[in-house]
């Protein structure tokens, strides 16, 4: 009796959590998908016009704002990947310099303690013409131009005011905030590398850069895949840093799918249209997430088969 109860007890303990997940997660997804086929405006309308069941999706694919959002999503994803690159470089430097490891690890991890709203607000102040770096540098008498924004020979930070550069300012803030997190993951991966590999490479006279490129990085592929999964999820749901820095502007130049969805719900009071955009965000998540997870599982099976 006791062994049987020991098997049943954990399942009973997990039942409430599974029920909440089914209702709050799976149920919400199903409800959102259903509303995407309706004409819901401010309040839900559960009637579906089957003659135009894909009306909201057709409208979404024709919306120039959604096209801008998708384009910015790609730019943000590619730019934010620099956080993984910088994280690995920082981890490699810290791993080699043992004396200041605790200090530098704390310093580089500090931005992670700040929310993206605060991060966006801080960088918006930095780019503020009267309060930020522009005013400080002009006060020092520095002459020259930044971002092509020189006025009268004086430095000008105009990233957030220019549609062509505002997205890059958001990328800069995102990389600054998340690089420390990926550094911590990379550092944990580097700690798992056998020290004999470094000794053998040193004895053979292999250049350090070749050790990293040909040995260390391939051995850390699972760490890089994990970082890619976390990065992709963060990029797809990016919203707060955009609101804090540009609020989608100038114009629609920094719209991303999450901002588009919230704007359709709050500004346009169109629940059906917002649900359609949310469903497409879920589809994008599956398209990006599932191949990475499948690659991780395949690599794991390959490693187990080789043992």
Model description:
There is one protein chain. This protein has 307 residues and is an all-alpha fold. It has one domain: MetI-like fold (Orthogonal Bundle), CATH 1.10.3720.10. The protein contains 14 helices and no strands. Helix 1 crosses helix 14, helix 3 packs parallel to helix 8 and helix 6 packs across helix 8. About 2% of the residues have low confidence.
Strand-helix topology:
Blueprint: H1 2-35, H2 55-61, H3 64-80, H4 82-96, H5 101-109, H6 116-126, H7 133-139, H8 166-191, H9 195-204, H10 208-219, H11 221-236, H12 240-245, H13 257-266, H14 271-306
Descriptive tags:
mainly alpha, 307 residues, MetI-like fold, single chain, globular
Offer a quick outline of the entry:
By secondary structure, the chain is mostly helical. Helices cover 70% and strands 0% of the residues.
What is the rounded Rg?
24 Å
Helical percentage: over 70%
Beta percentage is under 5%
Order of helices and strands: HHHHHHHHHHHHHH
- What's the average pLDDT? 86
Integer tally of domains: 1
Q: Looking at this structure, what is the CATH superfamily?
A: MetI-like
CATH class category name? Mainly Alpha
- By CATH, the topology is MetI-like fold
């Amino acid at each position: 009796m006791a062994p049987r109860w020991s098997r049943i007890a954990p399942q009973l303990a997990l039942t409430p959590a599974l029920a909440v997940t089914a209702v709050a997660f799976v149920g919400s997804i199903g409800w959102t998908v259903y509303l995407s086929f309706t004409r819901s405006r401010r309040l839900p309308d559960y009637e579906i016009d089957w003659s135009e069941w894909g009306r909201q999706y057709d409208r979404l694919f024709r919306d120039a704002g959604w096209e801008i959002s998708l384009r910015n999503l790609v730019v943000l994803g590619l730019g934010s990947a620099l956080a993984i690159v910088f994280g690995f470089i920082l981890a490699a430097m810290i791993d080699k310099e043992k004396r200041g490891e605790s200090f530098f690890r704390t310093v580089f991890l500090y931005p992670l303690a700040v929310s993206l709203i605060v991060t966006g607000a801080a960088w918006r102040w930095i780019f503020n013409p009267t309060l930020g770096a522009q005013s400080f540098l002009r006060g020092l008498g520095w002459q020259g131009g930044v971002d092509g924004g020189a006025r009268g020979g004086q430095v000008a930070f105009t990233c957030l005011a220019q549609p062509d550069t505002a997205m890059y300012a958001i990328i800069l803030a995102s990389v600054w905030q998340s690089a420390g997190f990926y550094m911590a993951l990379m550092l944990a991966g580097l700690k798992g590398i056998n020290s004999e590999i470094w000794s053998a490479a040193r004895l053979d006279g292999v250049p350090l850069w070749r050790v990293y490129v040909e040995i260390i990085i391939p051995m850390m592929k699972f760490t890089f895949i994990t970082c890619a999964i976390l990065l992709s999820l963060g990029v797809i749901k990016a919203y707060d840093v955009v609101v804090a820095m540009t609020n989608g502007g100038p114009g629609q130049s920094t719209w991303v799918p999450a901002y588009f969805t919230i704007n359709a719900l709050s500004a346009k009071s169109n629940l059906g249209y917002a649900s359609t955009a949310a469903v497409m965000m879920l589809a994008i998540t599956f398209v990006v997430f599932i191949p990475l997870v499948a690659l991780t599982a395949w690599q794991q099976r390959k490693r187990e088969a080789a043992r």
